[in-house]
Design brief:
The chain has eleven helices and three strands; from the N terminus they run ααβααββααααααα. The protein is mainly alpha-helical. It has two domains: 86 residues, Arc Repressor Mutant, subunit A (Orthogonal Bundle); 131 residues, Four Helix Bundle (Hemerythrin (Met), subunit A) (Up-down Bundle). It has a three-stranded antiparallel β-sheet with strand order 1-3-2.
């Protein structure tokens, strides 16, 4: 009995690795989470704005189930509030909550500085210097891009400690602080932040734990000091999410 012919190179279906990965359920869920998280961190989705599952699912080209899953992850990070029978909205922390978050973050990041002092490898030092150069390029924008890059610098420092629990808490605190700055922060002083980051790298490289911890504490306290209440406008949800959907390979329905 003849066996079925095997697909040849000419007849065998080809698959695009990147597309297959992007369309796998797990990767699509991650893409939705990353797109929404970036939109919140970069202040495209404003604090307090309502997040309708159907509209977001349509804009990102995914099911409401995946949108709900992303909401759950973002709620754990303090970026989204979930209310029974009222849906989801971007979190809007009070001034008192904002002060509490920054106080906790200062304690966490002092630990990061103390743990990293004298332990930076040449490769890690070069990576941090390269990141600071990116911050310098964003200097004139003085807005969401500056805040995002600053947050990424602090998260990368936490990653370099090798302490997974410390990284988790720093990442959550940093995300909440970015949201807080979107509400209460006046235009972020990028030049000041960049100079403070450079001083911190120097202290870490020199192995001066006390100075590194003090610089970190002063840096974060300066961010709090610069905070003030500032109104923010609103944009259409479709316009807001379009570039984030595109960056994660998602297509509107």
């Amino acid at each position: 009995m003849p066996h079925p012919a095997r697909p040849t190179a000419a007849t065998k279906p080809r698959s695009n690795g990147k597309m297959a990965e992007r369309h796998a359920p797990g990767s699509r869920a991650q893409a939705v989470y990353k797109a929404l998280r970036r939109a919140i961190i970069e202040q495209a989705l404003k604090p307090g704005v309502k997040l309708p599952e159907d509209s977001i699912g349509e804009q990102l080209g995914v099911s409401r189930t995946l949108v709900r899953e992303a909401f759950g992850r973002l709620a754990i990070e303090g970026l989204v509030e979930l209310k029974p029978n009222r849906g989801a909205n971007v979190a809007y922390p009070t001034l008192e909550e904002a002060r509490d978050v920054f106080e906790v973050r200062r304690g966490l990041e002092r630990l990061v500085a103390e743990n990293l002092a004298g332990r930076l490898t040449p490769a890690q030092s070069a990576e941090l210097e390269a990141h600071v150069r990116l911050e310098e390029k964003a200097h004139e924008q003085d807005g969401p891009e500056s805040i995002r890059l600053s947050g990424e610098f602090h998260i990368r420092l936490a990653e370099m400690t090798g302490n997974a629990l410390l990284l988790r808490y720093v990442q959550e605190a940093s995300s909440r602080c970015s949201l807080i700055l979107a509400i209460y922060g006046r235009p972020h002083s990028s030049e000041c932040a960049v100079s403070e980051h450079r001083q911190l790298i120097e202290a870490l490289r020199a192995g001066d734990a006390a100075r590194a911890a003090a610089l970190m504490d002063h840096h974060l306290q300066s961010v709090v000091t610069r905070a003030l209440l500032a109104p923010r406008g609103e944009r259409d949800l479709r316009d807001v999410l379009a570039p984030y959907a595109l960056s994660e390979g998602l297509t509107p329905s």
